[in-house]
Amino acid sequence: MTTLRPFICDDMFHFNNVNLDPLTETYGLPFYMQYLARWPEYFQVAESPDGRIMGYIMGKAEGSGENWHGHVTALTVAPEYRRLGLAAKLMEVLEESSELKNNYFVDLFVRVSNKVAIDMYKRIGYTVYRTVLEYYSGDPDEDAYDMRKALSKDVNMKSVQPLKDPVRPEDIE
Amino acid sequence: MAGRGHVDVNERRLRPIYDNLDNGNNKVAIQLVDKVLKKQKDLHCAKVLKALALFRMGKSNESFTLIQEVASLEPSDDPTLQAMSICYREMQKPELITKIYESAVRKQPSNEEYHSHLFMAYVRMGDYKKQHQAAMTLYKQFPKNPYYFWAVMSKVMEAMFSSDDTLSKKIILPLTLKMVEKLAKEDKLEAEAEVQLYLMVLDLMDKHEEAITLLQGELGEKIVSEWNYHKYRIACLYAKMEKWAEANAAYRKLLREQPDQWSFYLSYFKSAFELIDSGWTPQEDQIFVDGPPDYTVDSIIHFVEDVIQLESAKDSRPQRGPYLARMELFKRLKERKNKDIEKLGSLTAMLLHYFDVFGDKYCCFGDLSTFLADLDKETIQSFLDSLWKRLELDPVDGKITFAENEKHLQRHVSFLQISRFLGKHESLSSDEKISLSKELLKRYHDGLKFGADLLSTDLLPSDMYCLFAAHLLLDVWKQAGDDGMLWRVIPILEKGRSNSPANHHFKLLLIRLYCIVGAFGPCLQLYEEMEIKHVQRDTIGYIVTRHCAPLGHFHLVSGVYNDTLKFFTVNHKDTTEYIISAYKYGSFPKIPEFVKFRQKLNNSLHYTTITVEKMISELLLEANANNLKFEDLIRYMEINPEKDEIVWDELSDNRDFTLLVSYDSEEKQCSEEDKKDSTEQEKGWLKLQSLVLRILTAAGLLLPTVNTNINKNGTETPDMGEILKTLVNEFETHLEQLEKNPVTHKKFPLQGPPESRTSDFLNGNHGNIILNMMKATSDIQHLHANGIDNSGEVQERIKNYLQQTLRLLEDTLSKNRQSLVTEKDGQKKLHYSVLPNMVLLTESIGYITLLSGVCCKLLKPIKSIINKRNRKKKEAPQAMPAIFETYKKFLDSIQQFADTVHIAVLDLDPVFVSMDLSQLSLVDKETAKCVTNRANMSDRELESSMWKKIEESYKQSSQNLSGILKQKMEYLATLKL
Q: Which of B145, B560, B742, B838 is deepest in the core (most CB within 10 A)?
């Protein structure tokens, strides 16, 4: 039981149980506000009946021509609400928003080591489009998969034809 | 105006300056500017860039003079204006940006961009009226829809943030609606954002019927970017209009599509029961597109059962919503004492069914907790027995049966959470608690195998056992006051933390416990491990800022405070830009949201408290040290003692109190009332601190300064003596109010907010101690201002105040002076209340020292006047008034006293190595020796590591206090009349 609704600023006062997770980054306020100001419908939160934040998704629409697509910037679920299919549900909302905006596809980056997440994305129809070398800085740097799912606008599924060669972060459009 | 070629030349010349500014090479940027200016004296933009570089180097006065020089010339070229905007923004002077664009549009009235910049400048200021004017001017010249709607939105903001509600409702909003309707009638509404704004205005005016018509009409079709927007919005509008039949049918339809959306269930139930309560029945000719609404209990039950049926028939994983909805319905029927409740079956059966389906999910307990309270007392035990049976964890041949897999373990954890919540742990005896805790620790060790292939960023399934073991022992500690338990719990949590570094629950509870035992030392590292930053500084920061100084870790105070303040100042500057963005992108509903959010941050109780605490700590640590005179430092700090800058009614307590998990029964958890009371406590403390700060400031300003740099602008100086007197009265009244208020001394649950310092402060009588000293200072100022003649009474009063200050100090010391460790019946005990009390005492000595200095400097001129007089008329020299002797005595005694406290403080430097508490060890000898954590430490080693940390922390506190006291004593020794 969940309430899905648009993310609002005040949620930032309450998202600690989600953000204290070590893989969930807490950004400066401008980062969240920039998304809220430009793509409010791509920023959704799942709330439990007692008002706790269970997780949220943050994304945007960008690109031009056939590269006009929805992008998932952050997707996170608090540890206590995992394995409930919540991430998939949040993705569904973002995909619906992207459909409404006539996006060709939705894409996201994920650590190649994050098997749980990769499997989840595969289950809901995402495929690896390309590998981005050393996308995540750290010790050592880690590669990312750029995963994609075509939307109905991309009738011929052109956007998800996988690239053979990996790319460098600076070469991503 | 020069041709295009000229502009390019300028651009080329300025480029390297911009680059250097971007890279932080401010000095190089200035050199380049100077070079350019040699060639081209009147290149305004270069000057502005120089001002920016100067500002970034901290030369704010020089920078400001330079930029104002340019401003006075009213430049109107884009690069200069842009550069000036950046500079003013960094200087936090947004009002000056409006000035430059006001003059720019005067000079170039047809420049669309400048008009739009002017609008943005007003947005930064939150000047809604001028925003509206600027937007309308823009629209008249450049008739584009967005400009018109900027004007509309400006009106909406004026209405929403006006203090005059009638004005908003009766005049501003109707006017705004007319503006929108005018364009709508002319068929000129184009964008989705415009229709959104139209809806927003209707909503503010409670014109819901019109909103529905709009949504269902042609204009409604423009709203396309939100999924299911129309359906949600219309259902919600029906509910707002209390059209319950329509609302009910709408929500029922939505639930068929999304049976897990909890908010829909709440609205569905609400509307259905409204219909029942009003005795609603359908009229004969009434037609319902989606079928008649549910207006009987039977039909509600039927609907809910139906949703469950559909859900359980699905192949995919079941969603929790329908099952919980049934329990929610039970809860509501029970509240109404409705007999039909029987048709739902027993609550126990529903709970057990839920446990069967979702018991292996971490959220199971949280989901059920609201319904558990509805269990009848007599059924609780049989319910728990049934749960336990399902777990199949009964011991075999007296040996524990461990969970077989991760899901099994999680089901057991859910069981533990439920039974603790239902009071089953409370009712255990201390011995039973300890033995259950031992069992859970064994289960913890065994369960670690389930985390073997998890990443270090994952939480371990077994962590909860460890946390439960800790909670049980903390129960024993609280109930029996057995501190031995604390020394058991900390190493257990340290073990949990080293095995599961991603789990913040261990760290948060450790910070809490270390602070309780007076050891701040280990806390900062734990805090930093959680990577707390940005907005979390406001919501979580209190867990360290509350304890850092009060536990004597003054060497960390400025770092901790500065990190906090940096977040707030940077945020305040940066976030206005996103209000502007929201106008640009037409995200109108976000604009009031952003503004309110900024207000909450700007009025944050935590922010305000840290601002005051930081200044107080600076006075305490830095005044009269290292050649920095108190009276100069005060002036650098630019505090106006006359004015209370804090807007008390607007203060917003943004602290998060849900951080520490608790599975205690409802009445033992941190309640809404606790939270409210904690806010009140903190406000009370803030007021105390802010008055102390203002009083010290007023006292410092009584003294003249020789430093002319800071004795700026020759405005008339107010009568500081009067201000001081008023503030001291205010301080006294506030003390009385705090003493009287029962909330002041209220204690909160361990997992709730920490208590404010006020209680300890009052218990140590520190309020009265410094009050007496303040009064003495105020009276000495009176002598200074009005002369010593005929002042016998005042002198007598001062004598009393000073004696009283000393007497109270000595009382407090004798009450608090205690060895850190005592031994009774072979049991050693650490007295952890000693340290915070010594810190309070040291702080009071600090304030007294500052005021002593002020008194001394006020008395000096009086003495020299008498000396002078006596030298002139030699025959009958005037006897020295008693005040000087009184004061000398006081100075001697306070020095002696500080010395005594200093010795007490040195005693805080402990030797814990001898604190062997191992006879209480919880783990049996074999486990004690074996290594059960990633840090490769045995339980014995974890324990001695804890003592070492605490010992080091106390050593540090002792050193800090000693340093402060020594410095105060040295200063006092220099005071001579």
A: B838
Q: Which residues of B touch A29 (CB under 8 A)?
A: 534-535, 571, 574-575
The number of beta carbons lying within 10 Å of the beta carbon of residue B566 is: 11
- Do A22 and B502 make contact, defined as CB atoms within 8 angstroms? yes
Taking CA–CA distances from B457, the nearest residue in chain A reads A22
Q: pLDDT value at position B571?
A: 83
CA distance B136 to A64: 33
pLDDT of amino acid B790: 87
| Predicted complex ipTM | 0.95
Residues of A numbered 131-170 whose beta carbons fall under 8 angstroms of chain B's beta carbons: which are they?
Answer: none
- Distance, in angstroms, between A141 CA and closest chain B CA? 16
Largest CA distance in chain A: 48
Report how far residue B565's alpha carbon sits from residue B312's, in angstroms, rounded to the nearest whole number: 53
Which of B262, B502, B538 is facing A2, going by the closest CB pair? B262
Residue B125, sorted as left (phi over 0), alpha (psi -120 to 50) or beta, turns out to be: alpha
- CA Rg, chain B, in Å? 35
CB nearest to A29's CB, from B366, B455, B575: B575
DSSP for B697-756, please give it.
HHHHHHS--S-GGGS-S-PPPP-HHHHHHHHHHHHHHHHHHHHH-GGGG----TTSPPPP
CA B950, B952, B953 angle in degrees (round to 5)?
65
Give A-chain residues touching B575 at CB under 8 angstroms: 29-30, 33
- The answer to whether A17 faces chain B, any CB pair under 8 Å, is yes
Burial-class residue B717 by CB neighbours within 10 Å (0-12, 13-18, 19+).
Answer: exposed
The amino acid occupying position B29 is A
pLDDT, averaged across chain B: 92
Q: B457 in contact with A at a CB cutoff of 8 Å? A: yes
Model pLDDT for residues B802-820, shown as the tens digit of each residue: 999 999 999 999 998 888 8
Between CA B173 and CA B180, with CA B179 as vertex, the angle to 5 degrees is 95
First-to-last alpha carbon distance for chain A, in angstroms, is: 39
d(CA B457, CA B500): 8
Average pLDDT over residues B670-698: 97
Contact between B656 and A113 using a beta-carbon 8 Å cutoff: no
A3-109: CATH number = 3.40.630.30
d(CA B426, nearest CA chain A) in Å: 24
Instruction: Find the mean pLDDT for residues A109-121.
Output: 93
Alpha carbon of A111 to those of A27, A117, B177: distances in Å?
19, 9, 50
